[in-house]
Amino acid sequence: MIKTDFPQQCVIEVTAACDQSCIHCGRAFMERPKKTMRVDMFQQIVREIGRENPDCEVWPTFMGEALLLGKRLFPMIRYAREAGCRKITLNSNGNRLTEENIEGLLSCGLDRFIVSCDGHSAQTYERIRVGGRFERLYSGIHRLLERMRSARLETPLIELQFSIFDENEHELEDFKKYWLDQGVVVKCRPKVFWSGTIPGGGRRVSMQSDRTPCLWALDTAAIHWNGSVVMCAIDCEGKYVAGNVAHQSLKEIWNGSLAWLRSLQQQRRFRELPEICRQCPDWKVKKAQAFFPSDGVREAYENYVRRGRTFHETHELVGEPG
Q1: Considering the entire predicted model, what is its pTM?
Q2: Would you say residue 320 has pLDDT above 60?
């Protein structure tokens, strides 16, 4: 893995507020305040990204639901684009896909829109994503897709994500077939551990030769709403704070405390990592399976994900379900 002097992805917590209490999400147990990032801080971050590495993928999402910001969100994304950021991805629970928000998503310069669903029936979905409404979610996604088809829009790339748990794995195949038939990307991801907050799918942490460097740590900078740059995109509580963009540049932090941690990862000196990393099995699960409805969609997706990256996680790319 080639060492980089700037992150390849940047997760920015524009808000820590959320309208769901999902059974697998560490946010429900967070002790830190759940507030919203100042607009000027967000602008400072994306200006640096646009200047230092325009192909760093900007994710204006961390431990909250960005669409709660409503029409305040879309000027922020548009500003990032104007500041030179060439890869902007938004992750959402999809329950606020109103006509107004859909129009904002399609006009702000967004490249990829990921909707986390985790169920293909009201019973399963609403058990996992407490506070969400299945019918509202699916009707909102269909409105978004119909709007894109009618306007002949190819971006943003639409990706529906299904995190696999004991509670929903029986619906996975039906979920894949249903949404592939709608012409969108489907991604399946194992359950994450959220740095010890939630008991995830890989509970046994290995320090032996089968452990590999963690891609969360190696390529991604994660910033809380208050400017704290934390261990990685899994560190929801901020158990390790490497610096704060209110006092340092992101590049300085990336090449300071975070560089030491990446070095330990790359040298496989896992026993010397801070406890949050030593006890976290999520190094196993950043990789996911991606499924595509057509070769054209697959090509567009791969070109986007890999653009500007010196290394990337290897997905199991499958053209057809099953």
Answers
A1: 0.91
A2: no
Evaluate whether 9 touches 53 at the Cβ level (below 8 Å). Answer: no
> Which tens digit of pLDDT belongs to each residue from 49-61?
999 999 999 999 9
* Other C-beta atoms lying within 10 Å of the C-beta of residue 25: 23
Neighbour tally for 179: CB within 10 Å: 25
Distance CA 179, CA 158 (A): 10
Q: What six digits make up the tokens of 118? A: 């985790």
Neighbours of 146 (CB within 10 A): 11
Alpha carbon distance, N-terminus to C-terminus of the chain: 32
Q: Are 49 and 11 in contact (CB under 8 A)?
A: no
Query: Of 28-32, 220-224, 227-231, 303-307, which gets the smallest average pLDDT?
Result: 28-32
For the chain, state the CA radius of gyration: 19
